[in-house]
Task: structure prediction
Amino acid sequence: MSSKHAETSAAETRETAPAARTDSFGLTVWRQFKRNSVALAGFYAVLFLAFVALFADFLANDKPYYLEYQGRSYFPIFRSYLVGAGLAQWPPELLNVDFKKLKGAKAIFPPVPYRPSNIDLFAPYEAPSLKHWFGTDRLGRDIMAGMIHGSRISLSIGFVAVGIPLGVTLSFLIASPLVNEVAVVLLYGMFGFEVAALYIGAGLVLAIVAGFVLGRMRLERHIEPMILEAAAVAPLATGGAEVQPDRGSPGSAVE
Result:
């Protein structure tokens, strides 16, 4: 009698007990991923690089955010996107000018007021300072600006190194300057949702098609050996010695 009562109680308990929570696959993977502190730090580092790559023009640019000149207000960085898309033109007073040398102008520049292509032969190899955070190279180019805009290239090489198809990487590189969030906001405010949606769709389609075509060409076979070769002969941080690549390995150079 007691055994029957115990079985009945156990059955009632199973019926009344709430169902165990079943997490989604993505949530389960994320919880396991967070337990690895090194992988989590790398994930945040990649997110940071992606942020820098997307907003590179707002972090390092020789054009100001805001410009007040001759009694008028301008937004040169934002306008440059419209000019690049063929939707606007530079006013005559701002055509091919150096914004830093406009007399009587008031401007707000990005944290790094240079582009990596700006050459100053009178300032080669400058030491780090408030003017050039990381100094300059032999042509007087700002090193910090080069690192910010070069983050897109760093991401692309990293993607290829870990085995992500080159077509996906190239799609990212193509879409990053084409589909810009600032241009989307400006187009939406000036022309409405239809034009902004057309701009986004055209940019994404172009990036996807170009990435698909370039991916079908299997360009990874030309890039991966170079990455492996560079990693093999890179000097060690401690001893400065070079490790010669194994000539029999797949990543070695063919003589």
Remarks:
- The chain has a mean pLDDT of 77.
